[in-house]
Amino acid sequence: MPWSCCSGRWPWRTAFPRSDRRTVRRRCWWWALWSGGRWSRGGDTGPGSCSPGTGSLCFPCCPVTGTSCTPRRYDVEQPVWSAPADDAATAAALQDRFAALLGQEPDGVWAAPGRVNVIGEHTDYNGGFALPMALPHRTYAAVRRREDGVLRLASAQRRGLWEGRVEDVRRDGVCGWPAYVAGVAAVLAERVGAEAVGVDVLVDGHVPVGAGLSSSAALSCSLAVALRDLVPGLSQMSVEDLVTACVRAENEVAGAATGGMDQTVSLRAVDGHLLLLDARDFTVVPVAWTLPQHEVLVVDTRAHHSLADGQYERRRRTCEAAAAALRLTSLRELSADRLDDADVRSVLAGIPDAPARVRHVVTENDRVLDLVAGLREQDASRVGALMTASHVSLRDDYEVSAVELDVAVEAALGAGAEGARMTGGGFGGSAIALVRREEVDVVAAAVLAAFVTAGLTPPVFLEAAPSRPAGRVL
Ligand code: GAF
């Protein structure tokens, strides 16, 4: 059987047919509980040789599959925190690195933030509501304009230099992270011509990648603001038009059918505020964070998430099919009290998965507005309860959660968080919890312990303070 309990994830998700997974999971949990008293702290990874007090956790092998394995060692006892980079120092270092790599000084350094979405998930492409905030974690781009329509793209995190012509980007296709940068140039070239948007770029990402925190939007938005500042023909572009360009780059060049929330908050965030997005017309209203005793703790589960693997798009197409069958422009037009109408039920019954998917979208829109009201009333327990209800809906109706996200949510709630939920597209990525400031360390430690107990890769934690939008740093 292609599985070992010591592999660090819950491989039963892929290794077993759906009908068998619950049984395997239940047995593994029993094993985890039963053997819990025998786990020992130690520094040796050899079977049975853990010695106390040296600071890592040894795990026994799960006997369900019968595979032999070495006890897993985790060198993480304390939660690991991801701190935002210092803007000035990061930009100055990137400037130097750019000059060393590409032979000339850049024209400047720009940065764009990642985001967490407090509530309103999978609603943006349904014309609904969302409530994201910009993270203090940003992606930096040192950029130098060229005159020849060539793009040369490098990353501080990756090897190699990607090079191509702006006019070839759409025809030839671009893979991986360069697609998010080249895509922006290709879309903006429609306004000013390909020659005008050729650039050398060195990016330095400080938004965790694959964590559901919009590192991709941060990447494209950092170049979008740079090109607006550098290319005379783009200087009059509104921030709304920049958002549209970045969304098109992601949809048309990177191949991810995303809905626009991430680019909106990266480019239009208001420092210290959440952003109430109405995706029917992409208007935004800043919403003040009114819970000074509480903060949003982000748990990057390190279960890699991707929006370009088909699952995200499948849900989007189901929602669009449901709206069309109901003769609506988008699911935004459907209110929760109509979900039980016989005609609505009979239409949705004809589309696979639609009843549950639609229920999530419609109820989630209501939860966003309720949560904003809760914030205005400074009612932390109402805000928290709505976050948790959102998670349940995403897990059970929209089916975009993952074991890692559920473990994080359960552990955070068990340790006293007011509420917790997955954030972003799902299938891995990050969870968030609303936590009293003085309990942040306790909740993080409880989540870490739950991951270790479940045999999951230890998560990384971020403190999410609502932060500023994309712009020039240097
Ligand atoms: C991803 C997408 F990019 C967003 O547009 C949004 O749909 C989100 O998933 C789910 O709410 O972040």
UniProtKB/TrEMBL annotation:
Protein's name according to its UniProt entry: Galactokinase
Boundaries of every GHMP kinase N-terminal domain copy: 180-267
Organism name: Ornithinimicrobium avium
The keyword Transport is annotated on this UniProt entry: no
Designated gene of the protein: galK
Gene Ontology biological-process entries: galactose metabolic process
Top-level EC class as recorded in UniProt: transferase
Alphabetically ordered keywords of this record: ATP-binding, Carbohydrate metabolism, Galactose metabolism, Kinase, Magnesium, Metal-binding, Nucleotide-binding, Transferase
NCBIfam families: gal_kin
GO molecular function annotation: ATP binding; galactokinase activity; metal ion binding
Gene Ontology CC terms, in alphabetical order: cytosol
Pfam families reported in the protein's UniProt record: GalKase_gal_bdg (PF10509), GHMP_kinases_C (PF08544), GHMP_kinases_N (PF00288)
Domain GHMP kinase C-terminal: from-to ranges: 372-451
Domain Galactokinase N-terminal: 97-145
PROSITE patterns linked to this entry: GALACTOKINASE (PS00106), GHMP_KINASES_ATP (PS00627)
InterPro entries for this protein: Galactokinase, Galactokinase_CS, GalKase_N, GHMP_kinase_C_dom, GHMP_kinase_C_sf, GHMP_kinase_N_dom, GHMP_knse_ATP-bd_CS, Mevalonate/galactokinase
Domain of life, per lineage: Bacteria
EC number: 2.7.1.6
Similarity remark: Belongs to the GHMP kinase family. GalK subfamily.
Keyword rRNA-binding: no
